[in-house]
Write a structure and sequence with these properties.
The protein is α+β, with helices and mostly antiparallel strands. It has 3 domains: about 5-120, Butyryl-Coa Dehydrogenase, subunit A, domain 1 (Orthogonal Bundle), CATH 1.10.540.10; about 120-225, Butyryl-CoA Dehydrogenase, subunit A, domain 2 (Beta Barrel); about 230-380, Butyryl-CoA Dehydrogenase, subunit A, domain 3 (Up-down Bundle), CATH 1.20.140. It has 11 helices and 10 strands. Helix 7 runs antiparallel to helix 10 (about 345-355).
Length: about 375
């Protein structure tokens, strides 16, 4: 694996870094306070073509690889984890599966708008099925050349403003082999966007429920073969999980930076905190976790980009990076003492923002299950 970034990757990283510093950094605290990432922030990403990261140019995208996408997620997350997840979900599990699993007709119908202006969302979870995703209850019943969908979906990132929802519903018997994927447009009769969750962190990224009441859609809205939708969901989540790992990496680097800066400024016991070994050890542990996460994320993305299986590596990257981010943001507050506990310093927001990263797109427990199953089946350490 070559860890060097290409010229193009460096250019995109620097452009996004500049955008984040110049346009977003000064607003991130307000977005959190007001629980709203405004539309203009998405428009800025769209102007750079970032709504179509991996989608090929012929459908309006940039045709970038996953390594480039995760670099962008990391950069955005350094200033706003809320904007980063909005971007990551849209690209990884909202828009790209339509390219990867869609027919040319479906690509032409939905991708040009998704890569230029509108957001996509992913609707797998339900009130009674989260980790046990293949137990979902929403139904899609065939009626001539249409399907009629009924059920409830929740924990939908981007759902408040999304144009499309990639919805998973039961078309066959119980379990993973009876599920199909559907692309539903927001204004389809019977699709109602419900309440927006009042979350602990990632405020500004809207998380909603939707209800499906006799939503009637033509066959073209089914993505992939009937009853093979669960594999589409898990395959999309492989990419999504690498993205969440990158999001965690971005936030933990921001928290580390704040902790290092504060430790150098704050005086105690006759000198700066940074001269105290107990504090130095915390900073060293932060560096260890940042470096470890970076390597695991790059490896998982490289496996995907080179067409190799990446499920286990994605789970390892997500598990490691999100737990590392929890640790780093916790310790960043500790270095700040009481000041870390108040909103005047950004580490308070970072701490709240990372908490969900060990939960969404597969909990840490689910990542361990995926890793263990894979290691037992295909061998350890490969
Ligand atoms: N890619 C493609 N196919 C895969 C796959 C992958 N990564 N992993 C498994 N499959 C295939 C399997 O091979 C199997 O097919 P075959 O029988 O033909 O071999 C089929 O999918 C079913 O797999 P399992 O038997 O392993 O299914 P399971 O019911 O035991 O579930 C699980 C496995 C790992 C627990 C899965 O349910 C899971 O990942 N759960 C967590 C769900 C999750 O991450 N939810 C997050 C939702 S999104 C969100 O958080 C909000 C948002 O807005 C993004």
């Amino acid at each position: 694996m070559n860890l060097d970034l290409t010229e193009e990757q460096i250019q995109i990283r620097d452009t996004v870094r500049e955008l984040c510093q110049n346009e977003f950094a000064s607003h991130a605290e307000k977005w959190d306070r007001e629980d709203d990432v405004p539309r203009w922030a998405v428009d800025k990403l769209a102007e750079l073509g970032l709504l179509g990261m991996a989608v090929p140019e012929e459908f309006g995208g940039l045709g970038s690889d996953l390594r480039t996408t995760v670099i962008v997620i990391e950069e955005i997350a350094r200033v706003s984890a809320a904007l980063a997840i909005l971007f990551a979900v849209h690209n990884s599990v909202g828009a790209y599966p339509i390219y990867e699993f869609g027919t040319d007709e479906q690509r032409k119908r939905w991708l040009p708008r998704l890569t230029s202006t509108d957001m996509g969302a992913f609707s797998l979870s339900e009130p009674a099925s989260g980790s046990d995703a293949s137990a979902l209850l929403a139904t899609a019943v065939k009626d001539g050349d249409h399907y009629v969908l009924n059920g409830s979906k929740n924990w939908i990132t981007n759902g408040m403003h999304a144009w499309t929802f990639l919805v998973f519903a039961r078309t066959g018997g119980p379990g993973p082999k009876g599920i199909s994927a559907f692309i539903l447009e927001r204004d389809t009769p019977g699709l109602t966007v419900g309440k927006c969750e009042d979350k602990m962190g990632l405020r500004g990224s809207h998380t909603v429920t939707i209800s499906l009441d006799d939503v009637r859609v033509p066959e073209i809205c089914r993505l992939g073969p009937e009853n093979e939708g669960f594999k589409i969901a898990l395959s999309a989540l492989d990419k999504g999980r690498i993205g969440v790992a990158a999001q965690a990496l971005g936030v933990m680097q921001a928290a580390f930076g704040e902790a290092a800066r504060y430790a150098q400024q704050r005086q105690a016991f006759g000198g700066p905190l940074s001269k105290i070994q107990a504090v130095q050890f915390k900073l060293a542990e932060m560096e260890r976790r940042v470096q470890g996460a970076k390597l695991l994320i790059q490896k998982a993305a490289w496996l995907k980009d080179t067409g190799q299986p990446c499920t286990r590596a994605a789970a390892v990257a997500k598990l490691y990076a999100t737990e590392a981010a929890t640790w780093v943001t916790h310790q960043a507050i500790q270095v700040h003492g009481g000041y870390g506990y108040v909103k005047e310093y950004p580490v308070e927001r970072y701490y709240r923002d990372v908490r969900v990263m060990e939960i969404y797109e597969g909990t840490s427990e689910i990542q361990r299950l995926v890793i263990a199953r894979s290691a037992l089946k295909d061998g350890v350490g490969v």
